[in-house]
Amino acid sequence: MADKKMVESITSMDEDFAQWYTDIVKRAELMDYSSVKGCMIFLPAGYALWENIQDRLDKRFKATGVENVYMPLFIPESLLQREKDHVEGFAPEVAWVTEGGGEKLEERMCVRPTSETLFCDLYKNIIHSYRDLPKVFNQWCSVVRWEKTTRPFLRSREFLWQEGHTMHETPEEAEERTVQMLNVYADLLKEDLAIPTIKGRKTEKEKFAGATATYTIEAMMHDGKALQSGTSHNFGDGFAKAFGIEYTGRDNKLHNPFQTSWGLSTRTIGALIMVHGDNDGLVLPPRIAPTQVVIVPIQQRKEGVLDVCRKVAEESLEGIRVKVDDTDRSPGFKFAEQEMRGFPLRIEIGPRDIENGECVVVRRDTHEKKTIRMDEVKTYIPELLDTIQSDMYERAKEHLESSIYDATEYDEFKKLIDEKPGFVRAMWCGEQECEDVIKADTTATSRCMPFENNEPISDKCVCCGKPAKHLVIWGKAY
Amino acid sequence: MADKKMVESITSMDEDFAQWYTDIVKRAELMDYSSVKGCMIFLPAGYALWENIQDRLDKRFKATGVENVYMPLFIPESLLQREKDHVEGFAPEVAWVTEGGGEKLEERMCVRPTSETLFCDLYKNIIHSYRDLPKVFNQWCSVVRWEKTTRPFLRSREFLWQEGHTMHETPEEAEERTVQMLNVYADLLKEDLAIPTIKGRKTEKEKFAGATATYTIEAMMHDGKALQSGTSHNFGDGFAKAFGIEYTGRDNKLHNPFQTSWGLSTRTIGALIMVHGDNDGLVLPPRIAPTQVVIVPIQQRKEGVLDVCRKVAEESLEGIRVKVDDTDRSPGFKFAEQEMRGFPLRIEIGPRDIENGECVVVRRDTHEKKTIRMDEVKTYIPELLDTIQSDMYERAKEHLESSIYDATEYDEFKKLIDEKPGFVRAMWCGEQECEDVIKADTTATSRCMPFENNEPISDKCVCCGKPAKHLVIWGKAY
Description:
The structure is a homodimer.
Chain A: H1 5-8, H2 17-27, E1 31-33, E2 40-42, H3 44-63, E3 67-68, E4 74-76, H4 77-80, H5 84-90, E5 95-100, E6 103-111, H6 116-126, E7 135-144, E8 158-168, H7 171-192, E9 198-201, E10 213-220, E11 226-236, H8 238-242, E12 247-248, E13 254-255, E14 258-265, H9 267-276, E15 293-297, H10 305-316, E16 322-324, H11 331-341, E17 345-349, H12 351-356, E18 358-363, E19 369-373, H13 377-401, E20 404-406, H14 410-419, E21 423-428, H15 432-442, E22 445-450, E23 470-475
Parallel strand pairs in A: 3-7, 15-16, 15-17, 20-21
Antiparallel strand pairs in A: 1-2, 4-6, 5-6, 7-8, 8-14, 9-10, 9-22, 10-11, 11-14, 12-13, 17-18, 18-19, 21-23, 22-23
Helix pairs in contact in A: 3-7
């Protein structure tokens, strides 16, 4: 019974979704709390997920011409203040360094909450001619935002992310890059994380401080709430003007370049947990799982058992991230651990299996168990991993699509938001006042004005009844 | 003549080595200065070097069982103060965050200068039994030390590094890990960066704040100065005791575990420049070069030239990091750029070469030029890259070995340090006083007590004449 310990301590997600989430995060050893208030520790199992996400995303970036750089951690106050909307958005939530090397600083510096200002400061120095454009830089780093309430992966005072910052000759090219990077994010989530998303544009109220347009991918968690999973911003030439970035154009005149930025963070690990996890623990899509297959020896002290397990790992599973669990814990414990940690497949091999030339394969996502012949392992396992990857995506897609409701009347809207976990599609007049009213009444926010499936479902704003301008996806959000 | 601009502006290294270094760093676009005093910007060419170093080192780490994690950026003052020697070493050079989210913090926090204290804080929570040992964690991050004078890559207020922090059951195991990681660093420098190093132990004066022993790899720059290129520390159980980290041993009693830490930083990029660079610019060893081969089309507007260049890149140079420079600048400019940026090889292909079924190959390290047949490219280029890699190492080794001098008398010692660029081997009594005298007289410091070639060359301390305890490598250092 002690073997079950790893599972027993998880709260059921139907009972208390928030506690279920925290339980998984702790029990699967993804993170730990630190002595630094509001900051978290990424443990090996959690950080390995981020490494895989980085690897997959960075390859996509480089294929589109992105170059990685690294900018300073600190932003002098005067630099942060250069663009008015931006400083208003971020100043209240930054951390300030006021002393260094035993002395009070002449000018205080914040720890970067995001680095538009630093990139502009650099671009001012290195962009002189249209020949210097475009500049498509990105950095992988941590940023700090002084959040009051925090949750592992979803909201913490320091988090890991990438931030891309680009400069272009024309507004069209900037717009194209903004959309391109949103599509890169959506593709990463779909293909590697098996998470479907809704792409769309943020309202003025929800857009990034200083941007002219913010695009977003919104994912739906198992409890029906939204998680904004990546954003891409078009800045127009606002920052460029504020920072005096000018280049000599093809017409031999001075122009301001057009700017974008885009970011995806360790929040996506929260999405992985809340889209795919179940009451036994984490469920990881094979492409992103640090361990794809765990081989559990049965009666491992019997001669030959461990040898066969290792032989299968080395000879039949080349190119697959596999480990043989030869620790001295019981098979039952190892099964429970596979489930808690979300390894997509486990292979059980015992003396009888070896006699019969067989092994037992167990899927994490469906708990399905199948006995296969040893000589099938080489072809069956890679195929099964692909099947799991696509099944997980299809299930998540089915969940997303079946949890979106239409509302044309406000009472209906409120009832849906209140009673049905999921998103509600409803028309909006375009005024922030209605967003504020809806948020006050229901806690739901406008997630986005979707790029697809956005035909009007009524001609009136669901809230005020005035003429509608946009179809909006509404939902409660993390 | 304008084509030569990229080269013309470099100071000769014999004239002014420091200026030569700064010129390369700027002209090869490795870094840029930022508006943040003492902090630098890693531009794409500089950051790509760090990415390659990370990739090569991280693979070596993982092969020895290292697991990556990420710890908070901030250290509360009370945590930093827990170990006495450590806080004395670091407190004077940290940056303090005193305000966050619009409020003064109850306890100020420093931006990590190194993370021993944070790792101890974590290990206290997760190490309970000998079964939890060893813990072999590492993180890739930036750290901040408030340096008064800074130089690109060598010394800046923020720099990038990895820091490994491990805990072990026995002092022997900790010592073994300390040496193992030093060897990993030496191997990275030798095999990938083509830089020979001297491995040894630091004196008490030069060791890390809080360590019982610090091991180092010391490289020699072209001007004969030393660059400490990686360090590995054994902490004994000092921190574990200060932090109350205890585990139940195999004897069922409580014990403190034994600790190590080890780090390698972006300083190694400085070493790459100063070991291999020449008066034409950067020279990069092929294994670490982001671009290994640049193909320069001659008369590229002539029909077929660019096609052949691209065909060679795609079909004959698979697995090699190659780029075709099809920009509209002149071949002369492209040649100069290859030299400044240190691409190991360039291939020139023009209409006459195509007619003759040939191309011209030019080595960056020796400027050697050779015409080869097109059908040789596939085998010749990979072999030549290997040859360049080993030639570069051999030249650096020859330089190191021929620039080490022995001294048994203090006058001789001072004369050597003063007149001969390089290191001096001399005996030492073991007293810090002599290190202080030597530093005051010559600006040289004890680099290490070498692991190899350390037979006594006299029985007296070169400085005070008292009985000698150790052979020491002395030198001026960055």
